[in-house]
Amino acid sequence: MGMRNWFRMSSYQVFSHTVKLPTFSTIPLFFAISVGAIIFIIYQNILTSTLSMYPEDTQVQQILTAPTFSSKPQLITTQGEKARVESENLDPLIPPFNVTSEERIAWFRNKVPELELFKSNNTSSRFHDQVLGFFDGNCTIRYFMIWLSPAQSFGPREFAALDSLFKASPKGCLMILSPSLNSRQGDRILKPLIDLGFKVIAVTPDLPFLVKNTPAEGWVDELKSGSKDPGSISLSYNLSNLIRLAVLYKYGGVYLDVDFIILKDVNGLRNAIGAQSIDSITRKWTRINGAALIFNKEHPLLYDLLREFAMTFDGTKWGHNGPYLVSRVIRRVENLPGYNLTILPPKTFYPMDWMKISRLFKKPKTESEWKLVEDMLVELNTSTLAIHLWNHGTKELMIEEGSAVERLLSTYCVICQYSSNNQAQQTLQF
Length: 430
Ligand SMILES: *[C@@H]1O[C@H](CO)[C@@H](O)[C@H](O)[C@H]1NC(C)=O
Ligand SMILES: *[C@@H]1O[C@H](CO)[C@@H](O)[C@H](O)[C@H]1NC(C)=O
Ligand SMILES: *[C@@H]1O[C@H](CO)[C@@H](O)[C@H](O)[C@H]1NC(C)=O
Ligand SMILES: *[C@@H]1O[C@H](CO)[C@@H](O)[C@H](O)[C@H]1NC(C)=O
Ligand SMILES: *[C@@H]1O[C@H](CO)[C@@H](O)[C@H](O)[C@H]1NC(C)=O
Ligand SMILES: *[C@@H]1O[C@H](CO)[C@@H](O)[C@H](O)[C@H]1NC(C)=O
Ligand SMILES: CC(=O)N[C@H]1CO[C@H](CO)[C@@H](O)[C@@H]1O
Prior knowledge:
Layout: H1 6-18, H2 26-33, E1 42-43, E2 46-47, H3 53-65, H4 79-88, H5 101-111, H6 126-134, E3 142-146, H7 156-168, E4 173-177, H8 184-195, E5 199-203, H9 207-211, H10 217-225, H11 235-251, E6 253-256, E7 260-262, E8 272-278, E9 285-295, H12 300-313, H13 325-333, E10 342-344, H14 346-349, H15 367-383, E11 386-388, H16 391-394, H17 404-411
Parallel strand pairs: 3-4, 3-6, 4-5, 8-10
Antiparallel strand pairs: 1-2, 6-9, 7-11, 8-9
The site of one 2-acetamido-2-deoxy-beta-D-glucopyranose has 2 residues, from loops.
């Protein structure tokens, strides 16, 4: 029990050392810029320095989105990519194509006994012991990631996310919730980091245990018992959303998607989530993204999100789609007392939006393009904690030599498998 409170207690200690109070001059400035744009960033009654980040965002966007890259980035056409696409088809949670709802339910019912994720129904979970055993007092920060695809599709780009994480937080501890990586193959993938003394582990999450006594418990029970249609797209997508909420609700810590490059330690932030876009006039957020979450355990927002998840999946009650869930819930609660929520500006985690991210994969050709990449790197180094690469749209893109992404990958790393030569795309053999 003492352990379970650890994150919370020590996070306050850490926070008190690192929080920067806004200077008095920034407060009136901010007010002048956005009177009436209600921004609500309160952490334990302290206005954090993130307030003053909003006005600067225009500058960042100008640098990051300057329209100099003319041609499109190249697509990968190598063997490696074909192998990757094929292995992704092995995702155990993608239901058979073009079948009825009844057929999908039947398919899933047969599948459940094989799915490690759903195995336990025990209050004394082995998973829980693994979490308590892994995050000891030497972890400066507690990270979680999730990987529900097969181990063979965990490629060099995903590895680069881990590599950047340990560059930023060498004393941090990372638990990857993943049935497939909790294996010999997973051990081989993580070995280079473990050999260097970094604390990383892959553990099969115990979903029934994680959602116990949360509003999502019934949802998981129904799915498990085969009375709920798992849906036609990918159950992994929804389960990943659910697991990140449940694990932070239970233990607290930092959750990150595996398509980030982490530039800085996020220690010092608590109960924070990133805006992905803001209104250019009011400066108020328009979309919040759940790819990066920094929360104390049992935070009320996580509870609300779990409840919303369980309700919306039903389809009959709310009828909104998954990706909007976080924004919708936060819009309802952001001004309520007791939430202590920090909404970070887009440049913190999403400095480049998904429509424009591909330019970061392109080789700069002219002198002004090189200069632009330099400026971007400086800007990212000053104002971004982690850059989201929007894998859904970019995993097919080649990381071209000298591109911003290549530069980032070869800078923010300890093992640095991406080097500056053209071999960056060769498939690494784990
Ligand atoms: C929010 O901050 C207040 C004041 O510090 C504290 O009492 C309360 O527990 C915090 N709530 C959460 C959910 O962290
Ligand atoms: C889906 O299944 C139906 C009936 O089995 C069939 O008529 C239809 O052509 C299939 N569609 C695709 C895209 O395979
Ligand atoms: C439940 O936990 C107990 C004790 O840890 C163990 O002996 C038992 O096999 C577990 N049952 C299941 C279904 O996991
Ligand atoms: C676990 O589930 C099995 C059937 O799936 C049931 O027989 C058993 O009683 C359950 N155990 C607990 C502790 O809920
Ligand atoms: C922290 O690390 C030291 C040295 O490796 C070890 O002796 C100590 O037991 C660790 N502390 C905890 C709480 O695990
Ligand atoms: C980022 O900025 C810090 C301090 O401002 C500097 O020490 C560091 O070298 C920079 N890193 C890169 C990769 O530019
Ligand atoms: C509750 C939830 O997030 N449900 C989503 C599951 O995934 C599908 C798409 O794959 C969404 O449409 C649902 O909204």
